[in-house]
Amino acid sequence: MSKRDELIAKYAADLKDKCGVNADMDLLTKVTIGCGPSIYNADSATVSGSDESELATVKNNFLIKKLGLKDGADLDKGIQAVMDKYGQSNRNKYRAVVYYLLTKHFKKESVY
User: Fold this and answer.
1) Are 59 and 79 in contact (CB under 8 A)?
2) Phi first, then psi: what are they for 59, rounded to 5°?
3) CA angle 25, 31, 34 (to 5 degrees)
4) What does pTM read for this prediction?
5) What SS3 state is found at 18?
6) Residue of 9, 15, 86, 107 with fewest CB within 10 Å of its CB?
7) What are phi and psi of 110, to 5 degrees?
């Protein structure tokens, strides 16, 4: 099993255990691949739900550039909803899981 496959399995378990979501493995795999090498770096593999600059990066680089959404208050609400679903108390919010949940939240599976 490759390192990426191990991470995808870990993300699927995280979705099930922490979010109560049965992952669409095909979409999760595509989102994970889309994250590129960041998933292998301990710092960039996670998203800090309390760091405003980190959330701005998620909004600008993922929601606006990748998913093609228009900037607005609904993006911030979507990010907040995903952070609440993942659990504010969870210290390790994996980037691929957050992106997966955002993709589902905004119904943008077609991008992948």
Assistant:
1) yes
2) -65, -50
3) 140
4) 0.95
5) helix
6) 107
7) -65, -20
Sign of the Cα pseudo-torsion (60, 62, 63, 65, in order): positive
Q: How many other CB atoms are there within 10 angstroms of residue 96's CB atom?
A: 26
The arrangement of secondary structure in 3-111, i.e. its CATH architecture, is Orthogonal Bundle (1.10)
Q: What is the pLDDT of residue 42?
A: 87
pLDDT per residue as tens, the chain (112 positions)? 899 999 999 999 999 999 999 999 999 999 999 999 999 998 899 999 888 999 999 999 999 999 999 999 999 999 999 999 998 888 889 999 999 999 999 999 999 9
d(CA 98, CA 79): 9
Is residue 46 a contact partner of residue 95, using CB atoms and an 8 Å limit?
A: yes
- In 10 A of CB 15, how many CB atoms? 23
